Amino acid sequence: MTRHKVLLIDDSEVALHFASRVLDRAGYEVRTTDDVNQLSGVLGGWRPDVILTDVDMPGVTGIELCRMLKSHYDTAHVPVVLFSAVAPNKLEQLARECEADGFLSKANGLEQLPKELALLIETAVF
After folding, report:
1. How far apart are CA 49 and CA 125, in angstroms?
2. DSSP bridge pairs for 103
3. 101 near 70, Cβ under 8 Å?
4. Which of 29, 48, 87, 90 ranks highest by number of CB atoms within 10 Å?
5. What's the distance, CA 108 to chain centroid?
6. Domains identified in the chain, total number
7. DSSP 8-state class, residue 99
8. How far is CA 19 from CA 93, 106, 116, in A?
9. Mean pLDDT by 10 residues, the chain (126 residues)
10. In 1-126, at which residue ranges do the beta strands (DSSP E only) sit?
11. CA 45, CA 82: separation in Å to the nearest integer?
């Protein structure tokens, strides 16, 4: 089984803690950051298979971050998934607008996160 690498970006340390634990237990290799400005340090020589980012963050929003990642050569190929408590229909619209590779709602609960992420990977949304 391939251990997919996931980068979680969220301004809530609590959300990062719980989401990373759930994904880690499900077999994902997880790194986290609550500060977009430290992104290059978090990535270092490590390349995630997917980036999950919150939408509503101070400074750089998840929408702006997605656009930045998609416009840089080093990260343009990395799938970006919006992961937020924003209403699912709004989240889907935002994902389309910023050309994210997918979206997952926090409203579904963290228990479903590994399964939903696996479905995105299996159905080759990326």
Report:
1. 13
2. 82
3. no
4. 48
5. 15
6. 1
7. T
8. 23, 10, 13
9. 87 94 95 86 84 93 94 88 92 94 86 85 61
10. 5-9, 29-33, 50-53, 80-84, 102-105
11. 23
Q: Please enumerate in sequence order all residues whose Cβ is within 8 A of that of 16, keeping only pairs 6 or more positions apart, or say none.
A: 8, 10, 32, 33, 34
Q: Which amino acid is at 79?
A: P
Q: What distance in Å separates the CA atoms of residue 118 and residue 126, rounded to the nearest whole number?
A: 11
Q: First-to-last CA distance in the chain?
A: 18
CATH of the domain at 26: 3.40.50.2300
Give CA–CA dist 113/116, Å, rounded. Answer: 5
Among all chains, which residue has been given the structure tokens 């926090």? 106
What integer pLDDT is reported at residue 111 of this predicted model?
84
* Residue 73: predicted pLDDT: 87
